[in-house]
Specification:
InterPro entries: ABC_transptr_periplasmic_BD, Bact_iron-sidero_bind. With about 325 residues, this protein is an alpha/beta fold. About 50% of the residues lie in helices and about 15% in strands. It has 2 domains: about 110 residues, Nitrogenase molybdenum iron protein domain (Rossmann fold, 3-Layer(aba) Sandwich), CATH 3.40.50; about 140 residues, Nitrogenase molybdenum iron protein domain (Rossmann fold, 3-Layer(aba) Sandwich). It contains 13 helices and 12 strands. A hairpin with a 2-residue loop joins strand 1 and strand 2.
Length: about 325
C-alpha cells in the first residue's frame, strides 16, 4: 500500500512539473507571438490588405492576392486574362481548354457541382475567393470561413464581369486593354472572312447528344459569328429566335452556303455516332455547303465559353479564320 501511494505521489509531482514548464513556455511563446503579431498586423493593415464594399458588406482582402479561387466556369478565364493563375477552378470538361492547359497545369480542377467542394477549396489555401452571387451566395458563409470571399453581380455582358473583377484587383486599365485588343482582333478577322466569302450565307450548327441546334444572331454564339465577325445569316432564320432545335428532316430548310459545325463534346461517343449518322443521310449530302466542301468542323471544349470570355473568343476567332482559309484559298 505504501509503495502504491509513493507511486501516485511521484506521478502527480511529475505532472505538475510538466504543466509548469508548459505554461512557462506558452507564456514566453505568447509574448513573442504578441510582439511578432503586432508588427505583422501593422504591416498588413498599412500595405497588404484593403477594404472593399461587396453585396455582403465591407470586407478586407489582400492588396496583391497570391492564391485566388475563381468559381463558375468563366471567372477563371477572367482571372487569367488579368494575369492571375487561379489555384482552383470549376470545370465542365475533364481537361482544360487547350489555351489554358499550360498555365493551368498545376491548378486544381473541382468539377462543376453547384455546391463547390469546400475541402478541395480549403486544401489550396486561398487568400481570396471570387464568385458570382447567383452561383455562390448560398455558399458564402462556408466560403468566407476559408478565405475572404467577394461575390459579384450577374451581368448580361462578360465585359462588365471582367470589369467587376478588375476593379476588385486594381486592374481596370488591363481589363480595358483586353477588351480593346479583342475588338481589334475581331475587326481583322471580319475583314479576312469578308474577303473570302463576301455576302454568302453562314449557318452555325451544334450537334448535341439529343438534338441538333441552329444558332441565330440573337444569342452569344450566333451573335459572335454573325455580328462580331460579320458573316451573313440565312434570311429565313426566324428573327425572334436565339437558337432552334431541329430534326435532320428540317435542316434542308436552312440551306446555307457555309456550315460551321461544332460537336458539343468531341470525345462523347454518342455525339460522334449521331454525327456519323447525319453524314450518311441523303439530306446531309444534298446540302449546298456539303456539295461545295464548305463545311467547317470546329470547337469542342475550347468553344464552351464562346461569347462569355475574352480568351474563348480569341481562340474561336483563330479557329474560324484558320478553317475558312484552308478551304477558301
Amino acid at each position: 500500500m505504501r509503495f502504491r501511494w509513493l507511486t501516485v505521489l511521484c506521478t502527480m509531482m511529475l505532472v505538475l512539473i510538466i504543466s509548469a514548464c508548459g505554461a512557462a513556455g506558452q507564456d514566453e511563446a505568447t509574448s513573442e507571438g504578441q510582439k511578432t503579431g503586432s508588427a505583422n498586423t501593422s504591416t498588413t493593415e498599412t500595405s497588404q490588405v484593403k477594404k472593399v464594399t461587396t453585396k455582403m458588406g465591407e470586407i478586407e482582402i489582400p492588396v496583391e492576392p497570391q492564391r485566388v479561387v475563381g468559381l463558375s466556369l468563366v471567372y477563371p478565364e477572367f482571372l487569367y486574362a488579368l494575369d492571375i493563375v487561379p489555384v482552383a477552378v470549376q470545370n465542365y470538361h475533364e481537361d482544360h481548354p487547350s489555351y489554358l492547359e499550360e498555365p493551368f497545369a498545376n491548378t486544381m480542377k473541382m468539377g462543376i457541382a453547384r455546391t463547390p467542394n469546400f475541402e478541395a477549396v480549403m486544401e489550396t489555401m486561398p487568400d481570396l475567393i471570387i464568385a458570382p452571387d447567383w452561383w455562390s451566395e448560398k455558399d458564402y458563409d462556408q466560403l468566407s470561413l476559408i478565405a475572404p470571399t467577394v461575390l459579384l453581380p450577374q451581368r448580361d455582358d462578360w465585359r462588365d464581369e471582367l470589369r467587376d473583377i478588375a476593379k476588385i484587383l486594381d486592374k481596370e486599365e488591363q481589363a480595358e486593354k483586353v477588351i480593346e485588343d479583342l475588338v481589334a482582333k475581331e475587326k481583322v478577322a471580319a475583314d479576312k472572312l469578308n474577303e473570302m466569302i463576301g455576302e454568302e450565307t453562314v449557318l452555325y450548327i451544334r450537334v448535341m447528344e439529343k438534338e441538333i441546334v441552329l444558332h441565330g444572331e440573337n444569342l452569344d454564339r450566333g451573335n459572335f459569328v454573325h455580328k462580331r465577325l460579320g458573316m451573313n445569316p440565312l434570311p429565313n432564320f426566324p428573327k425572334d429566335q436565339v437558337a432552334m432545335s431541329v430534326s435532320m428532316e428540317v435542316l434542308p430548310e436552312y440551306d446555307a452556303d457555309h456550315l460551321i459545325v461544332q460537336l458539343d463534346d468531341d470525345k462523347n461517343p454518342e455525339i460522334k455516332k449521331k454525327f456519323e449518322e447525319m453524314l450518311a443521310t441523303s439530306l446531309w449530302k444534298n446540302l449546298k455547303a456539303v456539295k461545295n466542301d464548305h463545311v467547317y468542323m470546329v470547337g469542342g471544349k475550347e468553344w464552351l465559353n464562346l461569347g462569355m470570355s475574352p480568351l474563348a473568343d480569341e481562340y474561336v476567332i483563330d479557329d474560324i479564320v484558320a478553317v475558312f482559309e484552308e478551304k477558301n484559298k
